[in-house]
Structure formats: structure tokens, C-alpha cells
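Bumping with the actual sequence this time:
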Amino acid sequence: RDGIMQTAVFTFKENGARALLDPRTSLYAILIISMVMIGGSLSGVEYWLRVGCCFLPFALLLFMRNFSFALVYACLYGFAMLMEGTLIHLTEGIANLLLVIVAGLISRFLAPMVMGYCMMRYTTVSEFITAMERMHVPQAITIPLSVMFRFFPTISEENSAISEAMRMRQINGTRRGLMKRMEYELVPLMMSTVRIADELSQASLTKGLGGDAKRSHICEVGLRWHDYLLLILLTTALVLFMVY
């Protein structure tokens, strides 16, 4: 029964179920969140803008029912904010430098990365290509991005298969050493990366992405009321960030 239900859900998604957000809204959110989080300060209006930008990926993770990832995300940002607000001012020397680097990497880059992860989870390749064609984006940009949408999930599956094969052969870090484990895991993964990238590119061209004729789509893409609301909020955040 579980297998039938999973197949039904997957088929429904591929045959017209709407994505959580329009791909154009997601791309705009990634751009604004990156600008605010990387260039924002820890005081005044920019601080509250950063807090708001942190909350959007967290809300998407909760909506996707990925509660464990949402909890880890909230804990990491709470830890980073604590370090930036208090611990950095209480330490000196090497400890202060390490805290600044770790807190800066987490607080400024985690939110855009999680937002991109959420987009790749709830957006199919067909929806993304349709949205790009609606914006009249050249195929030289659309094709590599569409390949990227399938590249990372496929690499993750390949890495899981390699790890499973290593466990079957009882290859672990304690018996063979860390360097041997890296060799046994990274070398096949690098070889698979080249092969998978080539296969995905060929699959994209086979589906007609490189042709001159206009492609038809069965997926439904369009802005809904929550897309417009999010676009207004993101634009307001951008204006406040540029003004203050």
C-alpha cells in the first residue's frame, strides 16, 4: 500500500500538481534573501530584515513537514545570532576570529542555501523550465539550470548507494582509516559526477530543450495570491535595505 501511495503522489506531482511557490517567486526570494543576509548589519532596521529573511526558509521547511531540518536550521541560526550578539564581544585572539568566521558563515549563507534547497524540493524541472520560458530567459541559461535541478538529487542518491556498498563490504573509518574511506567514497563519486552530468545533459537535449520549436507544457505555472503577497514583502524588504 505504501508503495502504491508513493507512486500515486509522485504521479500526481508530475501530472499537474502546483508547486508551493511559483519558480519566479522562489528565484526572487533567493536573490533578496542573499542580498539582505550577506550585506546586512546587526543593528537597526537591517537586523530585523535579516530576522524576517531567516524566517521564510524556516516557514517553508515547516510547510513541507521537514520538521527535523527545520529544528536544525532554527538551532544553527539561534547559535549564530548568540555568537554575533554576545560571545564575539567577550572573546579575544584566535577564539574571537573563529567565532566571527563560524557565525558569519552560518548567519549570512545558511538562509539562501536553505531557500534554494526548498525550491529544488517543491519545484519540478518542467515547472522551472516553463517559468524560465515565461520570462524569456535564453536557453543557454535555462538548460544548465534545469540540468542542475536533477544533478544534485541524483548525486545524493549515488552517494547513498556508494555508502551502502561500503557498509556491505565493512569499509569504515575505524578499520581502514579516514584517508582510505575518502578514497573509496570520493573517487567513485567523482567518476559518477562526470557520467551523471553527461547523461542529464543528453536527456535534456533529447527532450527538445535545444530545439528551435516552441515546447508545450502540461504543468500549470502562475502567480497566486501568496506569491503576490510574498513579492510585495520581499520588495518592501529590498527598499528598506537600500534606504537604511
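The C-alpha cells above came from a reply further down the thread. The chain is about 80% helix and 0% strand.
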